[in-house]
User: Which sequence fits this backbone?
């Protein structure tokens, strides 16, 4: 117990670091991944902005990023991080690679939840003479809202996992703490505490996600 | 109003060329309710979608109100689509929007100012009889109510044309009836030209002034609904309306037929009683009605009666000659027991 109290400041800091990393990456995933996902959907064959070239180009880039294992992406992106932030250490630096990984991940989730929309609903909107932007804003986004929120939940949970990896190369956060104390120093107390903390965090995110997603679902 | 000229639609599936619509020309007049009938796969759905260019024809031209739609830019086409409402079998309402918002979307899409939207939506929902449901979500409505919402949405921008894609096929008979009378009202009161596609002859009978019958991408018969029903020419048309003009007499009844079995078809006026009683008075025959039915085709009666006329052969023949003069169509189905014995 004493050991825990002793650790508390460091634990707090690690927890905040994790939240910062995940929060930043999640924000970028939402801000960039959402439009990309919608773009992938609307440029598909027979849809409102059908465009084979755009669809394929975006699809290829997304697949490229998604096929690189995260730990390798982390190392691969170090020069970019250093160029953007002037450093490769700390939660901010780790956010760069986390964001790069999260954006395509979320984009694919957005695309697949948009596919769930009945094509007839889109056809009916086209028949009213609505512009593509009106259809995206007033039909696609509201109709995919529950899916978008579920997607954010899934992305957040994956990012919590990824953030532990990012921690190992100097990103900080709970994962970093667990490895430093638990792995390098065989300190089981810290190890268990961090695991419990992560479990609680993931459960909380999942619960919140499910709750909000259900609240906005009108089906 | 709507002119389709030599329209063909080809599409490729699994490297095989299919023809959905095969060189169809069709004109729909202003203010009429026009029906397109056919089984699924006949190309009627594709044909309907040419009118607002949800489908683009491979060759041919589409004119609405004198404008060739195929020459329009995207923006102009969207503008034109606002004057062509469309409703569907599956309703296709936005599940995450309330009834009010669903109708308001069509107005937003047309760039109507926010302050005018509310009044217009309320007025539209009044037309379709749903003013008290505007805060509900589609999932809380019945099928008929959903179709009313989609009708309100389709009427939002005061269209000149309303396209109905199997609009009543997912509804029960009572609801179908009420939606059809709403469509009729829209046609008569608002003067909107309506094009319906359906596989239900009931729908055509109820509301269509004229109709076209489609098979394998071609229009095989076209005419006023009454002509189609009273004198179908194409085998497919005959099949569609067989339950109107045809009637199978059960075997047991057939065995009891004493004289000649005659089918009478009355058009427009129904002087059935008078004709039959006149015949009985004029000739020494007995008439036994085995089947009788009157259909109202777009409010014009079409009667079909099957009668067993018995008596002296000479008298029976004279009676039938008499009927030929008084009735639209007389058909001798069975020549009598002797004939059957020979066969």
Assistant:
């Amino acid at each position: 117990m004493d050991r825990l109290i002793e650790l508390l400041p460091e634990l707090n800091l690690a927890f905040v670091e994790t939240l910062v990393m995940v929060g930043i990456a999640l924000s970028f995933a939402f801000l960039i991944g959402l439009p990309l996902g919608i773009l992938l959907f609307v440029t598909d064959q027979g849809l409102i902005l059908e465009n084979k070239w755009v669809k394929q180009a975006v699809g290829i880039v997304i697949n490229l990023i998604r096929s690189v294992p995260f730990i390798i992406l982390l190392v691969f992106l170090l020069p970019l991080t250093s160029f953007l932030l002037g450093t490769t250490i700390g939660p901010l630096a780790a956010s760069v690679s986390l964001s790069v990984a999260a954006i395509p991940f979320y984009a694919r989730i957005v695309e697949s939840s948009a596919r769930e929309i009945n094509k007839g609903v889109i056809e009916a909107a086209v028949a009213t003479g609505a512009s593509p932007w009106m259809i995206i804003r007033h039909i696609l986004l509201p109709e995919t809202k529950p899916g978008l929120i579920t997607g954010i939940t899934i992305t957040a949970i994956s990012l919590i996992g990824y953030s532990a990896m990012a921690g190992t190369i100097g990103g900080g956060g709970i994962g970093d703490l667990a490895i430093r104390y638990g792995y390098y120093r065989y300190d089981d107390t810290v190890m268990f505490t961090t695991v419990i903390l992560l479990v609680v965090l993931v459960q909380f995110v999942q619960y919140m996600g499910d709750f909000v997603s259900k609240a906005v679902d009108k089906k | 109003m709507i002119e389709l000229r030599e329209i063909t639609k080809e599409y490729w599936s699994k490297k095989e060329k299919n023809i959905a619509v095969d060189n169809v020309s069709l004109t729909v007049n202003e203010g009429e309710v026009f029906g397109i009938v056919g089984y699924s796969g006949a190309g009627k759905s594709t044909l309907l979608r040419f009118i607002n260019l949800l489908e683009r024809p491979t060759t041919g031209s589409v004119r609405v109100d004198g404008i060739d739609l195929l020459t329009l830019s995207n923006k102009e086409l969207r503008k034109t689509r606002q004057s062509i409402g469309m409703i569907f079998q599956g309703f296709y309402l936005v599940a995450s929007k309330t009834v009010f918002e669903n109708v308001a979307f069509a107005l937003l899409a047309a760039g109507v100012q926010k302050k005018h939207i509310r009044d217009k939506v309320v007025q539209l929902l009044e037309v379709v009889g749903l003013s008290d449901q505007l805060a509900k979500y589609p999932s809380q409505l019945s099928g008929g109510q959903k179709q009313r919402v989609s009708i309100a949405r389709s009427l939002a921008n005061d269209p000149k044309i309303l396209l109905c894609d199997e609009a009543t096929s997912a509804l029960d008979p009572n609801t179908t009836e009420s939606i059809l009378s709403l469509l009729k009202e829209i046609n008569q009161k608002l003067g909107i030209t309506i094009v319906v596609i359906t596989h239900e002859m009931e729908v055509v009978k109820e509301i269509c002034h004229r109709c076209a019958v489609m098979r394998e991408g071609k229009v095989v018969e076209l005419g006023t609904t009454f002509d189609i029903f009273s004198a179908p020419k194409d085998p497919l048309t005959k099949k569609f309306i067989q339950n109107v003009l045809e009637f199978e007499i059960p075997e047991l009844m057939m065995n009891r037929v004493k004289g000649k079995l005659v089918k009478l078809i009355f058009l427009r006026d129904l002087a059935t009683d008078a004709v039959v009683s006149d015949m009985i008075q004029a000739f020494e025959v007995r008439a036994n009605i085995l089947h009788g039915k009157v259909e109202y085709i777009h409010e014009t009666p079409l009667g079909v009666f099957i009668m067993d006329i018995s008596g002296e052969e000479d008298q029976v023949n004279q009676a039938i000659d008499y009927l030929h003069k008084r009735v639209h169509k007389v058909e001798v189905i069975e020549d009598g027991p002797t004939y059957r014995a020979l066969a």
Notes: Chain B is about 40% helix and 30% strand.
